[in-house]
Write a structure and sequence with these properties.
This protein is an alpha/beta fold. Helices cover about 45% and strands about 10% of the residues. Strand 4 (about 165-170), helix 9 and strand 5 form a beta-alpha-beta unit.
Length: about 220
């Protein structure tokens, strides 16, 4: 079977998140909760909550929403305003733009980052012109995550006029791939050296690194 459309996740997929950058994102989540949303906790507590929230919910902010009743949109907006100004640790993959151009099918981005943050990141890694008009944020579909419902994937497909069955969705997060699969997409997990879980029912393909991913795409995409 070949696939007509590639849909990429952005964060930790079209670039590699280093431990430094991941820790920085945890820090700005904690600061957004304290300084922007005025939660009555200290920084150490807030940062430990981010870690626990990600470990439990695959979402660094969910625990704040549940414990303090904050509006998810408020935390989403505060976090991404800070994220846009903290992109320097991100290093693009070498010669990645030329490698993407060699894939002979349409390519889109569907991200949990805000649209504005997506734009800033794509400009930072040199992919903005390539994906201009073809990158989407969950916020455009009234959501702030990709790992709790297939509905947001179906809304993405409706907007882009793409059949879910024509899509190969690529993400580093297995929890996102579960719902992409429920929407009717085929899925590829970019493992980054972590355990290869192709055997899981909602993961159709797996690649250990971006070069292996690209090699696979050349074989299975129309």
């Amino acid at each position: 079977m070949t696939y007509k459309v590639i849909v990429w996740d952005l964060d930790n997929t079209l670039y590699r998140e280093t431990p430094e950058f991941h820790d920085l994102m945890d820090t700005i989540t904690a600061k957004a909760a304290i300084e922007d949303l005025k939660l009555p906790i200290d920084f150490a507590t807030a940062k430990s909550m981010v870690t626990e929230s990600y470990r439990t919910y695959r979402d660094g902010g969910e625990l704040f929403v549940q414990k303090y009743g904050i509006n998810p949109k408020d935390l989403f907006d505060a976090y991404h305003r800070r994220k846009e100004h903290n992109l320097m640790p991100i290093k693009p993959y070498p010669n990645f733009l030329e490698k993407l151009k060699q894939l002979h099918c349409p390519q889109y981005i569907f991200s949990t980052s805000s649209h504005s943050a997506c734009e800033a990141i794509l400009k930072h890694i040199g992919l903005y012109d390539f994906f201009a008009g073809r990158f989407y944020s969950v916020e455009e579909f009234g959501s702030y995550k990709k790992n709790d419902s297939a509905d947001v994937y179906l809304k993405f497909c409706k907007t882009t006029k793409i059949k879910p069955t024509d899509c190969l969705f690529i993400d580093d997060s297995y929890s996102n791939l579960e719902f992409a699969k429920k929407a009717g997409m085929q899925t590829l997990r970019l493992c980054h050296g972590k355990e290869n879980d192709k055997g899981i029912e909602y993961i159709d393909f797996a690649a250990d690194n971006i070069d292996e991913c690209l090699d696979l795409l050349h074989r299975i995409c129309a």
